[in-house]
Amino acid sequence: MANALYKYSPFTFLSVIVILLFRGPGKVLLYYRYCQIDDPHVICAWQRALCEKLHLTGKVRVATEGINGTVGGTNMATDAYIDATRSHPLFKMEKDDFKTSDGGAECFKDLRVGVYKEIVPMGMDPDVVSYQLAGVHLEPEEFHKEVEALLAKADENNDTILLDCRNFYESKIGQFTQCLAPSIRKFSYFPDYVDQNLDLFRDKRVLMYCTGGIRCERGSAYLRSKDVCKEVYQLKGGIHRYLEQFPEGFYRGKLFVFDERYAISSNKDIISECRYCGSPWDRYQLCSTRFCCQLVLSCLGCRQDGRTACCPACQTKGQNQSQASGPHHKEECECTEGRPRIPQDA
Length: 346
Fold this sequence. Notes:
Residues 156-251 form the Rhodanese domain. Residues 317-346 are annotated as: Disordered. The protein is α/β, with parallel strands linked by helices. The chain contains 12 helices and 15 strands. It folds into 3 domains: 23-115, Alpha-Beta Plaits, CATH 3.30.70.100; 131-256, Rhodanese-like domain (Oxidized Rhodanese, domain 1); 273-321, no CATH class. It has helices at residues 2-22, 40-53, 75-87, 140-152, 168-171, 190-196, 198-201, 214-225, 238-245, 300-304, 312-319, 334-337; strands at 26-34, 57-63, 66-74, 99-103, 111-115, 136-138, 160-164, 174-176, 205-209, 231-235, 251-253, 255-256, 263-264, 284-286, 295-297. The protein starts with a helix and ends in a 9-residue tail after the last helix.
């Protein structure tokens, strides 16, 4: 019997390893690192091969300014990915630089690894507005105290602005209490938003935040380049890190994520509502119209009644899809036509 066990134990051991590597519980990683990469195509090829070998899905952007990724897989596969990425001499990353949440490979439709001009698309040349000009990084504890002090002076003439630099559909389902959340649809609109609202930031202390910190790196650099603010700070590690330490803190609602989950939560607050009936609701789904990529908040009752589109125009188009022909535009609906590209905030 002992000989038999010895004979088959290597096979059993390998089977267990395969199961742990490609099946079982998993997670989603979120990370970035700004650093000089002379040949991003080499890093891109290495990352693609690494992800494929570990059966990871997700998105990885590589540029001369660094790397930005979010990938999902089993616990063993994602741990191996962290170790491999950290081992590269260019990145000099700590394990804590990788933010994690429950999930897996099923959270993404596929794997996309590519070389880009920017690792986060702000639409500005990284050589002109560099991450090296970013604002002061505040640890979650420091940021929490700043927000606490801001809220304590809510009724006074305050010189501090709490700025959410994410997109409107992200801040719609979760945000910090009493923040300024611009109604912009893409981060590439953020520079124009700053330009058109400079007086809003003049002589102010600005506390910035985003999902994981990466947008604040370039966003705060752009804001600082305008030389109108007293001081510019950013939440280190973003909302993700803040919620790990303060799940019942000043951030209320869900945290939007760019994968098939759409959101993760740390508290039970629902700050958004159904687009149709106005009942509390914060679970996004894609507009049901074939050629629209807008996200819609439609509660279970309204969805059962067939109200699954992002707007009446799309609802009508959806009902006539069988007769649809000719060219279509993904964002041709009332949602985009009725919203100003760059909002003017008071």
